[in-house]
Amino acid sequence: MSPRCRTNRLVSRVLRAFLAVCLLALFPGCTSDTPDPLVVLGPWTGKEGEAFEAALKKLDDGTGRTYTYEGTRSLRETLVSQLEADAPPDVAILNSIGELTEYARRGKLRPLDPKTAERAYEPWAPTLLVDSKRRTYWVPLKVDLKSLVWSKEGTPSDDPEWCLGLASQATSGWPGTDWIEDILLHQAGPERYTEWATGRLDWRDPAVERAWTTWARLLGDRSPASVEKSLTTSYEGLPGTDGQSRGLLASPGFGCTHEHQSAFIRYVYAGDDVRVEPSARFLDGLPEYRDAYEVAGDMAAVFSDDPAAQELVERLSSPAGRERWRAEADPPVRPLFPDMAGLPPTASADPIEQEIDSLLTSRARTLCFDASDAMPPELRDVFYRAVLEFFGDPTAEHLDSLLRQLETVRVQVGENTGGDPSFLPPEDICESRGG
């Protein structure tokens, strides 16, 4: 090689190095071969968030990708703002199939790979018809059993005094809608419940009205001070001297004996002497639908075209991913899964966890997804507000007005979303398990 050639090559190499330094200064990371971390947006904070994040980090088994978890109690607002800024997360975990359905209809979600779609357990992940193609758009990662009543051990159950905290950091009112949904499911049955939850039943139907009036009768007469306390107290109860929530059963000033709440509330009562029972035991005349239970879930959906996002959801929903997550979680926040097949039993499970797991996986004959979480967000939010108003004024005249308002919104939502023949929302949110 001639001296001139060697000189030219050296100049070229120096020039490339110089340009690389300049680019790195202007655009950090642009010259790196390491891909950016995948962003996962989810609802878990505190110990739940820590356990999930720890499991997420352990999923990096030589794949070359890392993951960043963003946990927030204001999940919907955060995701909406990110979508408006055209900066969505790679994966988001939501508990509302009503919201997920709307994102799929608007083309924001990516259909799941077939291997992952096999874990779209019913009733948490119904398929959707989008652009005339029926596909799976989300998969449940963690689930919860509702239709439960909590009480202190030794407390008589023949005349319960109901705890109720309706406030929530994100959206208040949902502990009340949980009550009405559960009552309607047990009184009217899964078929009528499904028609109502999926927008095919008039809110003024006698079965719907009966659920509201039954709730008011169960709660009994309440003083204005008691009503105000329930409207302004969190569903987690009041904090103790250590700043941690004590649960409504242990909160001073309530004097209540029983609480209607989902399985997740067990983290508040960790170490307390409590028991859990099916809510049907507290409703009369329900022999046919006694073994029906309402459930909720946290579903993972892909918002990114990055193939690694699909791979992440597949790994999170796999038996190995579940086992990592469960191993990282403390017993009070240990996740429940829609199908425990392939996972060894948890030796340290306490009696409460064992009871809930038994109901969810074997004793429940019908599982129905949370009705308000299946509704379009506009209708769900009006439902939340209506419950708060009815709790303050449970008169027949006020209920009639509220149900008329809800029916108006149902019709309007149906008119706005029902004109596209290539799209169909979920029509079945219950699963019969026989027996």
TrEMBL record:
<keyword id="KW-0732">Signal</keyword>
<protein>
    <submittedName>
        <fullName>Extracellular solute-binding protein</fullName>
    </submittedName>
</protein>
<dbReference type="InterPro" id="IPR006059">
    <property type="entry name" value="SBP"/>
</dbReference>
<dbReference type="Pfam" id="PF01547">
    <property type="entry name" value="SBP_bac_1"/>
</dbReference>
<feature type="signal peptide">
    <location>
        <begin position="1"/>
        <end position="32"/>
    </location>
</feature>
<feature type="region of interest" description="Disordered">
    <location>
        <begin position="416"/>
        <end position="435"/>
    </location>
</feature>
